[in-house]
Specification:
The chain is an alpha/beta fold and about 240 residues long. The protein has helices at about 15-25, 40-45, 65-75, 90-95, 110-130, 160-170, 180-190, 200-210, and strands at about 5-10, 30-35, 50-55, 80-85, 100-105, 135-140, 140-145, 150, 155-160, 180, 220-225, 230, 235. The strands form 3 sheets. Strands 2-1-3-4-5 form a 5-stranded parallel β-sheet, sandwiched between helices. Helix 4 packs parallel to helix 8 (about 200-210), helix 6 (about 160-170) packs across helix 7 (about 180-190) and helix 6 crosses helix 8 (about 200-210).
Length: about 240
């Protein structure tokens, strides 16, 4: 049986980086396309349906943040952002806009390859694993694990970004259990948390907002001081 290779689009204004990554990813079994800026990316997206985007933050014209924001309006394709800045603010902003992961420049291509595999594995497993029911209920919400949509009490659906979906999955698979920040990071990202990383706090805050709550009055995802977070409700399998 022949497996169709995953299509990746690399968006970077440095031609050497584009060429290096396209060649490297191609040699590891991926179909790698490249774009030098937002306009080139949009032309590709008009005719391609990629499995994952790799987007540099610093681009001429529309930067990576703008690209991430615009893509998230119409698509939940996984996004890995590349940043040359050591400032954690850039990384947090990317995650808030819906990026699934980030990687600092300069980086080892093997590290990027590992991130790509982890993101694709999480995305594909969470939507196709027969051991996971399609619909689960928690509080006043339901989650459709196939379409990655939240469903409210009125039946209105709203899509989740890849990072939000994976974090909610971690909570739903461990209801009423206190999960540490490092534990949540590993469950939702598929790898150990880097030292002093606080991105999980950003993700929890954003997920609470999606659930109509805030940190001071959250009834679903509660903070356990000095320990982490807990999904403080039962989870019921619907189908």
């Amino acid at each position: 049986m022949t497996t169709t290779p995953a299509t990746l689009i690399v968006v970077d204004d440095d031609p050497e980086i584009r060429e290096l990554l396209a060649d490297y990813l191609g040699r590891h079994g991926y179909r790698a396309l490249v774009a030098e800026d937002a306009e080139a990316l949009h032309r590709l997206l008009a005719r391609e349906t990629p499995d994952l985007l790799i987007v540099d933050i610093m681009l001429p014209g529309d930067d990576g943040f703008t690209i991430c924001r615009e893509v998230r309006r119409t698509s939940e394709v996984p996004i890995i952002m590349l940043t040359a800045s050591a400032d954690e603010t850039d990384r947090i902003l990317g995650l808030e806009l819906g990026a699934d992961d980030y990687l600092g420049k300069p980086f080892n291509p093997r590290e990027l390859l590992a991130r790509i595999k982890a993101v694709l594995r999480r995305t594909r497993t969470s939507t196709s694993d027969p051991e996971h029911a399609r619909l689960v209920a928690f509080g006043h919400w339901r989650l459709d694990r196939v379409t990655r949509e939240l469903i409210d009490s009125e039946g209105e659906r709203s899509p989740l970004s890849g990072a939000d979906f994976q974090l909610l999955q971690a909570f739903l698979e461990h209801p009423e259990q206190v999960l540490s920040r490092d534990g949540l990071y590993e469950l939702s990202r598929g790898r150990p948390a880097p030292p002093l990383d606080r991105s999980i706090d950003v993700h929890v805050c954003r997920l609470r907002q999606r659930l109509g709550e805030d940190a001071q009055h959250s009834q679903l995802i509660r903070t356990v001081r000095g320990a982490g977070y807990v999904l403080a409700t039962r989870v019921d399998v619907l189908q």
